[in-house]
Design brief:
The structure is a single chain. The protein is of the alpha/beta class. The chain folds into two domains: about 290 residues, 3-Layer(aba) Sandwich (UDP-N-acetylmuramoyl-L-alanine:D-glutamate ligase); about 140 residues, Alpha-Beta Complex (Protein-Tyrosine Phosphatase, Chain A). Helices cover about 40% and strands about 20% of the residues. The chain is built from 16 helices and 17 strands. It has an eight-stranded mixed sheet with strand order 4-3-2-5-1-6-7-8, sandwiched between helices. It has a six-stranded mixed sheet with strand order 12-13-17-14-15-16, with helices on both faces. α8 links the parallel β7 and β8. α3 packs across α11 and α7 packs parallel to α8.
């Protein structure tokens, strides 16, 4: 099976699902993995959930482990450019030809699972492929990002060394519940007896998670009680700070933007310190791993005239973090946004933090199998009601071209919202402008 054939098959599974509220939802995934030989049990795992920051935190943990000399698998979602990004080892995606070969090898298990439970979904199949790839390649550890929620997510079949819940906010409310309390309870479902759980959740969400940990016998560690952040002088397009813990002081130089990443880094450090000694990286390893970090599509800045940022901000928490990071990093600058948002998202909540910035907006759409884009005209109506002017251009590449042409050297162009729009335009940018624009 070629990569293109594998991608075509997987695209056809997007609408294969079980009710996300079904208490038996994990039975299919468990049966699928059993037929594959339970690859998710072949190596130690770190399980990372949360509303925002879980992808960045997962990437940081993996980078530190890799810097310590470990062979490390990393599964995050969604991908920006290629399905191969769902299964990375030491930062490198699975090779496209190997992706196709591995899916072909999995087909007997897929067919047997289909006969008993129905066909595994797109998400389940990609997750199982990542587990299988990590087992075949004999990784020393794997960092596994939760998909949605926690309790009934397909990743919740792992038995991790440490669990993480970065924070709790409103997202996927149609699945997890309409309040942060309900969402916190669902995310807390990853807590397991005897497994340390690290969280940077605050207020009532923290209380709910801590209570869930106590109920199952999972030691609870609040990030703010185990790590203190201290500012250091920073470069213009990076950030330096210290993380002080009971184990010592980490002098961190992150080559990525956004002060919110400091809390993600502290969360990663507290989680790493909970690992058993043979897995735990030294302070110098963490510092080195973090200094080499690259997180595509997360406050990713390419200087130029104008400069451009790609950031996936598809929920209110991510949008607030983006708005704060832009204001902090580029004071006295104006922004030219190119935004597309999925139809299932709360567009009003995503856009509102961005409206508070000095900015212009071009709203666009995306086309991809199994996902619907919000109509750009509706996004423009939301902007109009907020007293913000906007343009509507359905084609994303044309929308980016218009935003760039109408911006001057003092502007920063910001591509955000849906993963699909951000990934598409990032790929176009790299192809036509290239890595030479990266600082």
């Amino acid at each position: 099976m070629t990569y293109d054939e594998a991608a075509l098959y997987l695209t056809g599974t997007i609408n294969e699902t079980l009710s996300r509220r079904s208490p038996n939802r994990l039975d299919r995934m468990a049966g699928f993995l059993r037929r594959l030989g339970d690859p998710h049990r072949a190596y130690p795992t770190i399980h990372v959930g949360g509303t925002s920051g879980k992808g960045s935190t997962s990437t940081m943990i993996a980078a530190a482990l890799t810097a310590s000399g470990k062979r490390v698998g990393l599964h995050t979602k969604p991908h920006l450019s290629s399905m191969t990004e769902r299964a990375r080892i030491d930062g490198l995606p699975i090779a496209a030809d190997r992706f196709g070969e591995l899916l072909a090898e999995m087909m007997p298990a897929i067919e047997a699972t289909t006969a008993e439970f129905g066909r595994p979904s797109y998400y389940e199949t990609l997750l199982a492929l990542a587990f299988a790839h990590f087992a075949r390649e004999r990784v020393d550890a794997a960092v596994i990002e939760v998909g949605i929620g926690g309790k009934l997510d397909g990743t919740n079949l792992v038995l991790p060394e440490v669990s993480v819940i970065t924070n709790v906010g409103l997202d996927h409310t149609e699945i997890l519940g309409e309040t942060t309390d309900l969402i916190a309870a669902d995310k807390a479902g990853i807590a397991k007896a005897g497994v340390p759980l690290v969280s940077d959740a605050r207020d009532n969400s923290r209380s709910i998670i801590e209570a869930a940990c106590a109920a199952v016998g999972a030691p609870f560690f609040a990030v703010k009680e185990h790590a203190a952040l201290r500012a250091r002088p920073s470069e213009p397009y990076g950030q330096s700070f210290e993380i002080a813990t009971g184990a010592g002081t980490y002098e961190i130089a992150l080559p990525i933007l956004g002060r919110f990443q400091q809390r993600n880094a502290a969360t990663a450090v507290v989680a790493l310190e909970r690992l058993r000694p043979e897995l735990r990286p030294a302070i110098a390893d963490v510092e080195r791993g973090f200094s080499q970090l690259m997180i595509p599509g997360r406050m990713e800045y390419f200087p130029g005239f104008p400069g451009i940022i790609f950031d996936v901000a598809h929920n209110a928490d991510k949008a607030r973090s983006l708005a704060e990071a832009l204001a902090e990093t580029f004071p006295q600058r104006r922004f030219a946004f190119v935004v597309g948002i999925g139809a299932t998202k709360d567009a009003q909540a995503v856009l509102q933090p961005l409206f508070d910035l000095p900015a212009t907006f071009v709203f666009t759409a995306f086309e991809t199998a199994g996902r619907k884009s919000e109509r750009p005209s509706r996004l423009a109506n939301i902007a109009e009601r907020a007293g913000v002017g906007a343009r509507v251009i359905g084609d994303p590449i044309e929308a980016l071209g218009v935003a760039r042409r109408n911006a001057d050297a003092s502007h920063v162009v910001v591509v955000t919202g849906s993963t699909f729009v951000t990934g598409l335009l990032r790929d176009w940018w790299l192809e036509h402008v290239g890595e030479r624009s990266r600082r």
